[in-house]
Structure formats: C-alpha cells, structure tokens
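Researcher: First entry.
Model:
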Amino acid sequence: MAPLNIIIVGAGMGGLAAAVGLARNGHKVTVYERSRSCGGVGYSFTITPNSQKCLRYLDIDLEAGGACPVDGWFLHDSEGNVITEMKENQADQRKKGTLSVFAYRVRDKRQIDGQ
C-alpha cells in the first residue's frame, strides 16, 4: 500500500499516539490542534491496562516516564463526602502484568510528542 496523507484533529494523548503509530507505518501524518497552549487541561488522569498495552506497543512506557500505579481512588461530592470508591490493580489484574496508572498529563504528552 502506498503511504497515505492522514490528518488527525486533536493533539491529545489519543491523537498523538495514533499519529506515532501511523507515522511508524510510513504514512505522512499532520496533527491539528485548536488550543494555543501545549500544556494539558487538568493535572493527571488514569491510564487503563488496555491503554497501557496500546502505548507499550508503540514503545511508550508511561511507568518508565514516572506514571504511578494506582490501587484505588475515591470520588467525592462538593462537600468532601465520599460518593464511591473504586479499586484498581487487584491480584488478578496484577498477574496480567499491565496496571492502571495515574499519569501526569503534561509530562506524558511530551513523552509521546518525542516519539
């Protein structure tokens, strides 16, 4: 197949990861982002095990870049009361070798940009 000219709209984690994968397969990729800031919105986010596997396939290891495994988290209402608790990375998940992690948005986006 001849290389394609591909446009990706959105320079978030998903858009940049897709761009890396497509470019590595020989395609010409252009990423468009409407935000003028290269920083992220928010501080951190959770990367699920399946997303971790996809990023590792692209040789992007967020844990090596400083992302931290998360064993659980709480959702609070505006007054600080716990609404729900989520458990992550339980024994069965740990056996599979890929964990949910909290990742720092700006650093991890830069790690993907460098690919």
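Researcher: Second entry.
Model:
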Amino acid sequence: MATKAPEEAQELRQDALTGEEISGTTIPPSTPSKRQNHGAARNACSFPTPVPPFDPTAKPSLVSELLSPSKKLSPKHKSQPSKSPAPPATTPTTFSGRSGLGAYTAAPESFPSSRVISYNDDFVVINDLYPKSTIHLLLLPRDPKKQLLSPFDALQDPVFLASIQAEVRKLRTLVAKELQRRFGHLSKLERNREEAREKMLSATEELDDSKLPQGRDWSKDVISGIHTHPSMAHLHIHVLSRDRHSECMRHRKHYNSFATEFLVDVEEFPLSEGEVRRRRRAGFLDDDLVCWRCGRGFGNKFAKLKYHLEAEFEEWRSE
C-alpha cells in the first residue's frame, strides 16, 4: 500500500475534512455505469434533499466537455515523426480532490437543483456534499482572480469583501426561513404565537401583530464563516444551521471546525496580520469538545458528544 508523503499527511491532519471526503469531491470522466457508481458513493451521508447521480449523458454541458478525454490524434498526425515524446492520447480535465469545487463554478447549470441552489455571474450557492448540519450551504465566488487565493488574502479587497458579506446575509435569511418552514410546527414559541393569532381572529376582524407573543427568531439559529485552514482549494463560505445534526458529522475535527474559532465570521474580515487565527490555524481542531447548546464538556470523547447531540437536537427544534 502506498504511503502518503509527510507533507500530505500533515496537510490532512490540519484539514476539517477527511481524506475520503476530499477525494469524494472528484468528478471523474467515466462511462455512465461508472458515473452511477460514483453517484452512489457521493450519497454516503443523508442529505436534506436526495441527490441523483450526475448524468453527463442527459444533455450536453460545459462540464461534460471539460471532463471528457481529448480527441485522439488523427492517423496523419500520428505518422509524423517527432524528436520529442508524443503527448498522451487523452488529457482529461478534472476537478478532483481539493479542486473539486471548481466544477460548480465552471458550469453550475450542469448540476441538478438538489445540488446547485442558485447561481449568477458572481456566485454559486450549493448544498454541501457532506453537510455537517440539517442545512449546510456553500457560497462559491466565481471571480477567477480571487477564488484560488487564501481567504486571508482574497478578503483584503474591500469591494470583494463587501460583496461576500452581502451575499452571506442573504443566505442567512434564506436558511432561517427554511428552518422555520421545516421546524416551525414543532416550535413552542411558534405554536404560542399561532394560537394567539387564531384567538385574536376569532374575537375580532382586525389582526394586530404587535399584540401577539413574539415568535421564534430563527436567524439566531444560523451560523456562517470561513475556515482558517480550508480543506478545498476554491474559496468557499459556509452558511449552516447551528444544530450540527447530520450523519456526516463523524469526527472530532468535523465538530470543532464549526464550534471553535476555526470558523471565522465574514463580518470579522479582514483579519490583521497579528491575528491569532492566522497563526494557530488548524490547532483549533484539537480543542476539547463542548456542546454548542448546553456548554457541557466532553474532552476528546466524540462518540459521547454525538449521542448527546441527538437529544439536544430534539429539544432545540422544539424551543
């Protein structure tokens, strides 16, 4: 079995994603049967919406063009002598491993709506392939001058930063509304408000919202930010519900990547050169585990925290 180079192994130790998750972002040029198998592998975790395998045979797309092997040289060209070695017959372009997010920014129209939620000339919004919460979105900037820079460098540009912050605010509102849609009927605060509304309507024809009890503020249940040590090459911003309830939440570093200062809110950028989060970077992933809701500590016992989070999730959504 081939062993990883020391620098590659060190990089993986600093990543919030596992090596399997990073390699799982590969979109390989393959036959339909291989694509079907690949699609099944990509559904190893439960997603908010079922994700069908990416099918390049459904219709021609930019992604299928990018990912298909180059045309072979014609016999005429093959017969010409050459002093240098001939180039390989196939030179497929793939967005694999750490570059996997590039496929979405290159051709978002080629993906189903269950994966790509929206896109325009500047941004693509997707459902995270390995969500760490009930709702987990990624905002992907499409600016080719910025998307491969580190977040610390890319967000030094005040105009670019302002555009990112504005989009994140929109997505936070979207996630909050989706939480209300999914869990509003379970929330005590929401039910109390709705019951008071019905009583008011039955007693009078006029409805005065100012006299109703306050409903749940779902915006407080949304977090967002950028990892200090991103696992993926392309710039991406996380916007997710804070429950951390997902089958894809499987490791200590998964949890701490969203429960410590490893996640930096975009409103805090740009970070100064002396900012500790620039220096410590991945060290946050080794912090002791602490429940995001009740503050109970679990040391390095992720399995116990995971079990605890199940009960917290039920209580959280019924608040």
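Model: Note on the second entry: The beta strands are 116-119, 123-127, 136-141, 222-227, 237-241, 263-264, 289-290, 297-299.
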